[in-house]
Design a protein that fits this description.
Elements (H helix, E strand, L loop, with lengths): L1 E7 L6 E6 L3 E6 L3 E6 L11 E2 L5 E6 L5 E6 L3 E6 L5 E6 L6 E6 L5 E6 L3 E6 L5 E6 L5 E6 L5 E6 L3 E6 L4 E6 L5 E6 L13 E8 L4 E9 L3 E10 L6 E6 L5 E6 L4 E5 L5 E5 L6 E6 L5 E6 L4 E6 L1 H8 L14 H10 L6 H6 L4 H6 L2 H6 L11 H4 L3 H10 L4 H26 L17 E3 L5 E3 H10 L17 E2 L1 H14 L2
Antiparallel strand pairs: 1-28, 2-3, 3-4, 4-5, 6-7, 7-8, 8-9, 10-11, 11-12, 12-13, 14-15, 15-16, 16-17, 18-19, 19-20, 20-21, 22-23, 23-24, 24-25, 26-27, 27-28, 29-30, 29-31
Amino acid sequence: MVKLIHTLADHGDDVNCCAFSFSLLATCSLDKTVRLYSLSDFTELPHSPLKFHTYAVHCCCFSPSGHILASCSTDGTTVLWNTENGQTLAVMEQPSGSPVRVCQFSPDSTCLASGAADGTVVLWNAQSYKLYRCGSVKDGSLVACAFSPNGSFFVTGSSCGDLTVWDDKMRCLHSEKAHDLGITCCDFSSQPVSDGEQGLQFFRLASCGQDCQVKIWVVSFTRIFGFELKYKSMLSGHCAPVLACAFSHDGQMLVSGSVDKSVIVYDTNTENILHTLTQHTRYVTTCAFAPHTLLLATGSMDKTVNIWQFDLETLCQARSTEDHLKQFTEDWSEEDVSTWLCAQGLKDLVGIFKMNNIDGKELLNLTKESLAADLQIVLTCWTHWDLICSGPSDVLSLSSMKMPTTESLGLRSKVLRKIEELRTRVKSLSSEIPDEFICPITRELMKDPVIASDGYSYEKEAMENWISTKKRTSPMTNLVLPSVVLTPNRTLKMAIDRWLELHQK
């Protein structure tokens, strides 16, 4: 369902952060460098590593278009790089000179936020590279930062455990103690939580901390109704401080990395654990999902970055809301089939299914004839269950002695009906078009996907028409697009083509 496909081991010290664009992976380290890799084959770019910082590099992030990379360091600077040639575009010094722990671009690329060890947070103009606004928290270092998907506000997290919410004018909207021993990371899901009340949009926020917890919050903010942050739930699984968390691009999965050396992937709908990855040998310090591709990067104090690939079954798995459909039915074991039978109120059939070694593949192939002939489900209403459980020979002898009753025929009908429902649902899950393959404008499968300057992908023709008629606004955020340049998303097109190959056979 998820497999390790590559390990990068070029850094000479702890890996602090990793980040994806549509075609590149960036990593940064205590070794003072930033490295860039191509997603096509994970080879390092000719102009990598990027060297400027004189101390440890704590964080790196791409602009939504992927053309600019930001990195920040203990040396008190935030540096902007041209990702195409590695040239330095700007060096922005934190006004206080304090070590910069975190940096993050706004969704429309107009601003860059940088948070420092002295609690100061700066909004930089990402076009002029000049300081726009500055603020600070009362206590602790700023170690986490995330912009809301619509860009109207952003959240910072401190080493004292406070989540602080700021609007785009750097006004403090809210501050709340979220983690007792300090926050380490936070991230917004790009997909709003649906809610029809007053037309409000609600966003899901994840935070993690030194208290070993991952927490989910629901955040809303409008100029009319104001701001509200509500605690929703806590995700279990880690037994040590959690250092990183990140949502997948479609918001269906959340990943976290911990001092316990593990990486946990959650289904955000059910909040169940989908996968636990344990290949790192030291603390997991960072994790990131790629946009529009089925890749996850995890970095560690073991100096490596692991690249993981999810298959399409995992996407369906994350979209499922029922435990018995956590994996494709054809891959079910005999125990999984037993669990399913119990869930359908067919507990009395567990013994006979086990006796005939019925796994997921066999279950989907059962017919009316095989139920009657092979499994003997035309018997009486199982009043002689003790005989059936004693062995196949007893089943055969019992079937020769008893005639079917109305109740037994009803049982067979129920089994057939439940299996047919299962076949239908599995077919629906396996053929469902992943959300990231659908154009936000046309709501159809993309044939020629392009990346706009808002960081989202669209069908080329639809986006060109949108730009020409909608005055250069983003279909996803309603903000003005900083550029009308559309870049072909070759990685996404390859993923769509692969999906089509699998589902058009």
